[in-house]
UniProtKB/TrEMBL annotation:
The name this protein goes by in its record: Shikimate kinase
SUPFAM superfamilies: P-loop containing nucleoside triphosphate hydrolases
Gene designation: aroK
Keyword Signal on entry: no
Cofactor requirements of the protein: Mg(2+)
Complex and partners: Monomer.
Annotated positions binding ATP: 14-19, 120, 156
Enzyme class: transferase
Record: residues binding substrate: 36, 60, 82, 139
Molecular function via GO: ATP binding; magnesium ion binding; shikimate kinase activity
Catalytic activity: shikimate + ATP = 3-phosphoshikimate + ADP + H(+)
Cited function: Catalyzes the specific phosphorylation of the 3-hydroxyl group of shikimic acid using ATP as a cosubstrate.
Length: 180
């Protein structure tokens, strides 16, 4: 699948973008990037600190710059932050510069996966479930509008999700090969 463009993973926190992205990159012999990790690496600070100092608007600006840069690379797997789709310029870049896979997960699954995670500034509120539901209502339509493929991750191993992504992407690249 060398003729395949960049593969870009979008979805909410706890969907498995980083884990699945690493496995997918290994499966396809591609380089893997995580936009949140790249932001932290370049800033020398973690995301909660960036939120504290610059606010969400400052973080989103850094995120947009990182997406602009990373989507210009070729033949990579890119995991984006959960809020990357909030800006139209990001959605446009993602659609134009790669094949976008939405890793769909339910709020219930997100709660289980991020239960002990204190590194998520938007979840540092009393009612995590209500916060996740609000984010889902706002973001799910944006993920769907941006994605070429939607893959459910609930109660599935990362390897099973990677296998499904590879099958689904092969159909996009060569619909006849997938039927053979």
């Amino acid at each position: 699948m060398q003729d395949l463009p960049n593969l870009i993973l979008v979805g909410p926190m706890g969907a498995g973008k980083s884990t699945i992205g690493r496995l997918l990159a290994a499966e396809l012999s591609r380089e893997f990037f995580d936009s949140d990790h790249e932001i932290q690496s370049r800033c020398g600070a973690d995301i909660p600190w960036i939120f504290d100092v610059e606010g969400e608007a400052g973080f989103r600006q850094r995120e947009a710059q990182m997406i602009e840069e990373l989507t210009q690379l070729e033949a990579v797997v890119l995991a984006t932050g959960g809020g990357a789709v909030l800006r139209e310029e990001n959605r446009r870049r993602l659609r134009e510069r790669g094949t976008v896979v939405y890793l769909y997960t339910t709020v219930e699954q997100q709660l289980k996966r991020v239960a002990k995670d204190r590194n998520r500034p938007l979840l540092q509120r009393p009612d995590r479930e209500a916060t996740l539901r609000e984010m889902f209502e706002l973001r799910d339509p944006l993920y769907r509008a941006t994605a070429d493929v939607v893959v459910r991750t609930d109660r599935r191993s990362p390897r099973a999700v990677v296998n499904e992504i590879v099958r689904r992407i092969q159909r996009l690249v060569d619909p006849f090969q997938a039927k053979a």
